[in-house]
Each structure stands twice: as structure tokens, then as C-alpha cells.
Amino acid sequence: QSLKDGNLYTGFTKDLKKRVDYHSHGMSIATKGRLPIKLIYYEAYLNEKDARNREKFLKSGRGREVIRKQLNNTLNLSE
What φ, ψ does residue 11 adopt, rounded to 5°? Predict the structure, then answer.
């Protein structure tokens, strides 16, 4: 989540720590202008195809709605 504007970023990676560091240091165009960011939620999958399907869903309109409802208390604390 961007602490600057509250927007959520959803992505897929095989190395979560490395990806968070990458985004936190402004090395990603997707989050560079939205720093600072913090990790507020993650899911882990054993199968890459399952993980990519979940990412695709979470980036859809319905997926955004589901994740915001699921993280309602966290998001309200962050704002």
C-alpha cells in the first residue's frame, strides 16, 4: 500500500523480500511516485499458475472489491 495516496499495488513474485525492497527503493515505475509503501498482505502458493490466476483475479474489478472488503480494518487503520 502506498502511504502517500493509500492506493494498493498487487503483484506476483517468486521472492517477496526482494520485490518489496525493489519497490521500497523506488526502482519500479508502478510505485516510484507513490513512496513510501508498506506490505499489508500477501498470499503464498505452491503452484505458479495458481498464483498468477489469483493475481489476475485480484487485479479485476471484483477482485479489488473482495480484497478491500477483506482488508477493511487494515485499510481504515492506515488512512
Answer: -155, 170
